[in-house]
Amino acid sequence: MASEKTQVVTRVTAILNAIALHGAQGARLLDLAQETGIARPTVHRILQELAEAGFVEQRASRRYGLGSALYLLGLGAPSPINDFAGLKKVVHRLADQTGDAVYVAIRRLDGVHYLMRADGSYPIRAEIVEVGETVPLGVTFAGVALLSWHEPEAVEAQLLANERLRRRMKAVEMSDVQDTVTAVRQAITQVHERGYFFDKDTVLHGVSGMAAPIPSKTSEPYMAITISAINDRLPPARVDELAPLLLEAAREIGTFIR
Amino acid sequence: MASEKTQVVTRVTAILNAIALHGAQGARLLDLAQETGIARPTVHRILQELAEAGFVEQRASRRYGLGSALYLLGLGAPSPINDFAGLKKVVHRLADQTGDAVYVAIRRLDGVHYLMRADGSYPIRAEIVEVGETVPLGVTFAGVALLSWHEPEAVEAQLLANERLRRRMKAVEMSDVQDTVTAVRQAITQVHERGYFFDKDTVLHGVSGMAAPIPSKTSEPYMAITISAINDRLPPARVDELAPLLLEAAREIGTFIR
DNA sequence: GAAAAAAGTCCGTTGAACGGACTTTCCGTC
DNA sequence: GACGGAAAGTCCGTTCAACGGACTTTTTTC
After folding, report:
1. Under CATH, which number does the domain A8-76 receive?
2. Residue B15: what pLDDT?
3. Which residue of A has its CA nearest to B55?
4. Distance, in angstroms, between B165 CA and closest chain A CA?
5. Using CB atoms and an 8 Å cut-off, which of residues 19-58 of chain A contact chain B?
6. A131 touches chain B (CB under 8 A)
7. Is the CB of A5 under 7 A from strand D?
8. Which of A39, A63, A144, A195 is deepest in the core (most CB within 10 A)?
């Protein structure tokens, strides 16, 4: 493993990516060392140096999070979304049409990051994720939809790797790993056949959702759009009814991104 | 210079920051080597490694720009703006009140990055900068307003350092360096006395503007708000009239940021 | 199409990066 | 409030990854 002919730069990027996956609450030094496979003193030293440059910040809890210098760099980095206003319009339209909550998420390393949400008129709302959150691939509806573009072996590896992270998710009762792997495999077949993923109770008991990958002009799908509601709002008949709307929205958004 | 006890991480951050300052058109290898003071082969190697991680991208022109991995990391980094919707409202209100173009910019390393723009109803519009652009500190109205929080020596160093960058700006006729330094010194005094900066013709012949630093709860000002219009729209009497509106907007926005 | 300039590559030398071992700080528990 | 286990932080001798001078290739300019 060690002899890739370069160390520090690769390590720096690995550490930053690892921190990103820990989201808002920040990452512990020990976790970062384990996840990157780098010795703890080394991670510590690199973190100090990154902190000096404002690329990471150490919170009061001693956990490390991304620093605001990265926010500023991010402003200058090319966004894959060419027309955010257009995207927004499509999402709100879908929320109006369906009455339910619509999310848009973007693939972010081994996770999905929730970019925006539009609420429909139906008063009962299931708050599975918040905008700005990053959740491991394969955990949420959008995450499964995007996972479907991976090789089967990669999928399985991902799911096992997720286990630890997944347990962190509040209010989620998980079935055991093997069950999950099988379930997600079936889900992936579904995405390939119908173009979208539908399921209930998997993410949060009582909540149904359907998610479609958003096609990209230049690469495999890296964004997804989700409709989510309580189980009673999404019986099979209504899923069939909503599917064309969901897929059309995905197609349209595909024209607004790289 | 060499013995700061750390190299690569500092260098990586320096290179990324240097690239950021080159904006959309990208940076040449040679420029980056000069600007960071690192030997060209070294910069080249680090760039290759960063490119592999998606942190930088090499364009067809062989120039280097920030990569989309940084966009994704930026999504997870803490934004200093707590309430973007509130900020937007204030800016649009000011544009409506004045009829002129209003910009909001954020300090970004040795430059200012333009975050948003709202147009007023007046039909003649001076497009000095575009949203998303980064311009060296002290070049635009907002840039001068923010420069006023630096130590005098730092200001002078900044201005001299800007000269090279500044020449790149399209359509800008510059007076010679000494004149500029003197002019900016006066401008800074003005900001300290009145709380805002007003000038005409400095940035672009025929264009006047006034800019106020936005106070931050937690640090010195790092954002600014600008009103800009053609000279005839901003005679001294109107400047006096607009100043309270500008300062009030700046104060309000200050409550929406860190 | 020659010359200049920039980009990219090679490789021997060396000091920055590494990480095992140690110390300090934090925090839950009784 | 002080004990103890766990995580964070520091030290320092060893070593190999990073460095950059010198060279080659590609691009641009005239």
Report:
1. 1.10.10.10
2. 93
3. A13
4. 17
5. 20, 23, 46, 49-50, 52-53, 55, 57
6. no
7. yes
8. A144
Least confident of A1-5, A75-79, B33-37, B110-114: A1-5
Interchain contact B93–A (C-beta under 8 A)? no
Mutation pick from B71, B84, B130, B137 vs chain A, by most beta carbons of A within 10 Å, is: B71
Please state, in angstroms and rounded to a whole number, the distance separating the CA atoms of residues B184 and B207.
17
Secondary structure (DSSP) of chain A: ---SS--HHHHHHHHHHHHHHTGGG-B-HHHHHHHHT--HHHHHHHHHHHHHTTSEEE-TTS-EEE-HHHHHHHHHSPPSBS-HHHHHHHHHHHHHHHSSEEEEEEEETTEEEEEEEE--S-S-----S-TT-EEETTTSHHHHHHHTTS-HHHHHHHHHHHHHHHHTSTT-----HHHHHHHHHHHHHHHHHHSSEEEESSSSTTEEEEEEEEP-SSSS--EEEEEEEEGGG--HHHHHHHHHHHHHHHHHHHTTB-
Structure tokens at B7: 């190299």
> Which class for B20: exposed (0-12), middle (13-18), buried (19 or more C-beta within 10 A)?
buried
Q: What is the pLDDT of residues A25-78, one digit of tens each?
A: 889 999 999 999 999 999 999 999 999 999 999 988 889 999 988 988 888 888
Closest C-alpha to A255, from A73, A86, A67: A86
List the B89 CA – D3 C1' distance (angstroms): 57
Distance CA B37, CA B25 (A): 21
The predicted pLDDT at position B226 comes to 96
User: A195 φ, ψ to 5°?
Assistant: 90, -5
In whole angstroms, give the CA distance from residue A199 to residue A203: 9
Q: How far is CA B102 from the centre of its chain?
A: 15
User: What fold is seen in the domain A84-254?
Assistant: Beta-Lactamase (3.30.450)
Confidence band, pLDDT 50/70/90 cuts, at residue A127? confident
Q: Where are the domains of chain A?
A: 8-76, 84-254
Q: Which residues from 207-226 of B have any strand D atom under 7 Å from their CB?
A: none
**Range B192-215 average pLDDT:** 88
